[in-house]
Design brief:
- This protein is of the alpha/beta class and 798 residues long.
- Helices cover 37% and strands 21% of the residues.
- The strands form 6 sheets. It has an 8-stranded parallel barrel with strand order 23-24-25-26-27-28-29-30, surrounded by 7 helices. It has a 7-stranded mixed beta barrel with strand order 15-19-18-17-16-20-21. It has a 6-stranded antiparallel β-sheet with strand order 9-8-7-6-12-13.
- Helix 4 packs antiparallel against helix 6.
- The protein is elongated and about 95 Å long.
Length: 798
């Protein structure tokens, strides 16, 4: 005899046809993962058999079919009327006594002597499939208590099979309406209204990078994050070092969490309300580090159990303090993509920036902005126009199919707007804050999601280039091909390019764009004389007890994102190489930097690190690197010292690093130096005793070999890396590195711009060449040709 209800303990993942994707997954986790330590609230589900029997007993099957046949499938002009008619048919139907008793018995069995609150969730039999998530299409009712309220909620879930958005979604995906049934999951309520809740992905949702887990969350009920009503906290966790038991949190980003959704005080148990989040809680992370690691470990266990990337929902009970997983479904966007095929977008011009937010996707689009207040204004939207609105809920789904892009004031990377944009393959920028104010209705705008995690909305129509790259057709040369990187936001996407790691990570970008404060201004904050500078520093460091911790934490997070993106390949971070005039431009910098006539040849590089003017600042850099390597477990990170003029400087800096906890050789630490001063070449064999490797900085080496200021416009005609003297210095450096068995590479543009220069480096036996990302593929091509020519030359010699 077929069951009307099934307890979670009776459900496995293969029961999708009986209880739908959502409930099958809950049953699978409850029976298989609960015993492994993952908290999953218990519950039961009504079956698809019960739903079909309900239709049959109320003679609704043919009536519903005939109603849906009247749907205008071209313009969907009568979608609202058809949806309402179908839902009314369900609402007017009656549950049989047998079905009602089965539900109440299951509810009693779940609760014991006293009824408690439950979550009532719809679960369609075609839901959470690899090609269609059905995210947000059907309804959920929270905080339901009592027999009457439970029966009402279950019927409402039945009716939600015919919401306007669900009807349109099935039409778009090619599903037969009458071929899908609804199961309803009834699950013990987690009191996240008094705690927090959120979602997670077991990959990075924009790039599809598989080695991270993204968790995001808000105070109170999760609807605020799903509907994109607030900007959530975000946590990136690195899987490989999580498995090793390390502190694997790569990055934390605090959202404003301006609203908290709670239950309203009323007789209607499903009634909810949004209240202002107290400022103290807005400035507090919703989870501590241990809780983030716990959730990440659970997410990893779920992914390993299902053997695929997963999209999960979690909640923290504010009464008990316990964490729970409340849902898990397959991630539906990236698992069907060809990872070898990549489209590269690049703006060829810029204009006024209207607003910025979280980028969804990596495309650039141009279109007419249509500012809309609600889904009922759908008739204003023409196909291909860009929807600009405050936030996107599932009710927007029927019209988003027409849009060319989405821009919202609110929402994060895991909001409904982001999920739908990825599934539709359209660009979106969410969480802009003021998009509906800065973008005018009807104006032409350009959306760029091709500049990392930040999306930009530009005024007017901008030109851009689009290039298709098939990575499967690219063959790597024997010479290592590495990248020059600075921006952590682009690291995950760039990791898909063919590469052998990062030969130069410029930390200056992180310091100037993210930290923005001179490290000595943080260490000696009480000595700052300018009140406006003190105020600016106080604002940026508001969430840190010690101001120097702000520098260490932000620098560590930025570098760690890049080290993780390319793990386990080596990533070589260069310690800060600002000139004094550049350091002075940081907040508070002018008070701590000397004025120099020629900063290019002045107080820079290694000379700063042991000088009292900056030694403590260098200590903060070392502290960040030590955290990344020792605490986070990213031992693929190596360190490179710039502009080291003398052997004595090299020895001093290596000793100071050891004093700050970065001892060469301990935990596999390798310390490199830049070869950019002629003394580095002349005494290369001596420098090789101090350092583990060399990286030729061709710009500085050329300038100092030729005696030319590379920043001088007047002298630009003489500055040339291809000059015989410059190449002779490079050849000498490579020869001496080979003699001492020291690894040596080169960072620069010349090998991609000039095939002859690549051929020269290959002929000398360079170990690696590092390129800017936009020059990498050309550099690979030139290097392969050079290696082939070298091989042919050797053959001819014989």
């Amino acid at each position: 005899m077929k069951s009307l209800t099934k307890e979670f303990s009776q459900i496995r993942i293969h029961d999708i046809a009986q209880v739908g994707g959502k409930n099958a997954s809950l049953g699978e986790m409850y029976t298989q993962l609960y015993k492994k330590g993952i908290n999953v609230p218990n519950g039961f589900a009504t079956t698809s058999y019960a739903f079909n029997l309900f239709l049959k007993e109320n003679k609704l099957e043919d009536t519903l079919k005939n109603t849906l046949k009247k749907l205008d499938k071209l313009a969907y002009s009568n979608l609202n009327d058809i949806g309402q008619e179908a839902r009314e048919l369900i609402h007017n139907g009656k549950f049989s006594d047998k079905f009602s008793i089965a539900i109440i018995d299951a509810y009693k069995n779940l609760c014991g002597n006293d009824y408690f609150e439950v979550a009532v969730r719809s679960s369609a039999t075609a839901e959470d499939l690899p090609e269609a998530s059905f995210a947000g299409q059907h309804d959920t009712f929270l905080n339901i208590k009592g027999e009457k309220h439970l029966l009402e909620a279950i019927k409402n879930c039945f009716a939600s099979l015919y919401t306007n958005r669900a009807i349109k979604y099935r039409e778009d995906k090619g599903f037969e309406h009458h071929g899908i049934a609804i199961s309803v999951g009834v699950q013990k309520m987690v009191r996240s209204d008094k705690g927090c809740s959120g979602v997670g992905f077991t990959l990075e949702p924009e790039s599809g990078f598989e080695n991270v887990i993204l968790l995001s969350g808000v105070w109170g009920l999760g609807e605020n994050i799903v509907q994109g009503l607030v900007n959530p906290d975000e946590f990136y966790v690195f899987k490989p070092t999580l498995k090793l038991g390390k502190n694997a949190i790569l990055q934390k980003k605090m959202g404003d969490k301006a609203k908290t959704m709670i239950y309203a005080e009323s007789n209607n148990h499903s009634s909810i309300m949004n209240i202002e989040t107290p400022l103290e809680k807005q400035n507090q992370y919703i989870l501590d580090n241990d809780e983030v690691q716990t959730l990440a470990n659970w997410a990893l266990m779920i992914e390993e159990h299902y053997k695929k990337a997963m999209d999960i929902e979690w909640a923290k009970d504010g009464i008990t303090g316990k964490l729970y997983i409340t849902q898990a479904r397959p991630e539906t966007v990236h698992q069907t993509k060809d990872k070898n095929l990549f489209y590269e977008y690049k703006l060829t011009e810029k204009s006024k920036i209207l607003c910025t937010g979280n980028a969804v996707g990596s495309k650039i689009i141009v279109g007419i902005a249509r500012v809309l207040g609600a889904p009922k204004e759908a008739t204003k939207l023409q196909p291909g126009e860009i929807v600009v609105t405050d936030t996107v809920t599932p009710d927007w789904d029927p019209i988003l199919k027409m849009s060319g892009g989405i821009v919202t004031n609110k929402g994060g990377r895991t909001s409904h707007a982001s999920i739908v944009a990825r599934e539709l393959g359209v660009s979106a920028v969410v969480g802009c804050g003021n998009a509906t104010e800065t973008i005018k209705d009807g104006e032409i705008i350009t959306i760029s999601c091709a500049q990392g995690k930040t999306g930009y909305i530009y005024e007017g129509k901008l030109d851009f280039v689009k290039k298709q790259i098939d990575f499967s057709n690219i063959q790597m040369p024997k010479t290592e091909m590495k990248m020059i990187l600075a921006d952590p936001e682009k690291a995950f996407q760039l990791s898909f390019y063919p590469n052998n790691g990062v030969g130069l990570l410029r930390m200056e970008f992180i310091i100037s764009h993210t930290i923005r404060i001179h490290p000595m201004a943080l260490l000696k904050f009480d000595e700052i004389k300018d009140a406006s500078v003190r105020n600016e520093i106080n604002k940026l460091t508001a969430n840190y007890l010690n101001k120097e911790d702000y520098f260490v934490d932000q620098l560590a997070q930025g570098i760690a994102m890049i080290a993780a993106a390319f793990y386990p390949k080596e990533v070589i971070v260069r310690t800060s190489d600002f000139k004094t005039n550049e350091y002075a431009n940081l907040i508070g910098g002018k008070q701590f930097e000397p004025q120099e006539e020629n900063p290019m040849l002045g107080f820079r590089g290694a000379s700063r690190y042991y000088n009292d003017l900056y030694k403590e600042g260098f200590g903060l850099e070392c502290k960040a690197i030590k955290r990344i390597r020792d605490e986070m477990g990213l031992t693929n990170l190596k360190v490179m010292i710039p502009f080291c003029r003398t052997l004595e400087e090299g020895e001093k800096v290596v000793q100071i690093m050891a004093d700050y906890g970065l001892k060469r050789g301990i935990n596999g630490l390798e310390i490199y130096t830049m070869v950019e001063v002629p003394s580095n070449v002349i005494l290369a064999e001596e420098f090789a005793k101090i350092f583990d490797g060399f990286s030729i900085g061709s710009n500085d080496l050329t300038q100092l070999t030729l005696g030319v200021d590379r920043d001088s416009q007047l002298m630009s005609g003489i500055f040339d890396e291809n000059d015989k003297a410059s190449k002779a210095m490079i050849a000498m450096a490579i020869e001496k590195a080979k003699k001492t068995n020291t690894k040596i590479g080169l960072c620069g543009q010349a090998p991609s711009d000039f095939p002859d220069f690549a051929a020269f480096l290959v002929k000398q036996g360079i170990d690696s060449i590092s390129f800017n990302p936009d020059a990498l593929l050309k550099g690979i091509e030139n290097t392969r040709k050079a290696e082939k020519q070298k091989f042919n030359d050797v053959q001819l010699a014989f």
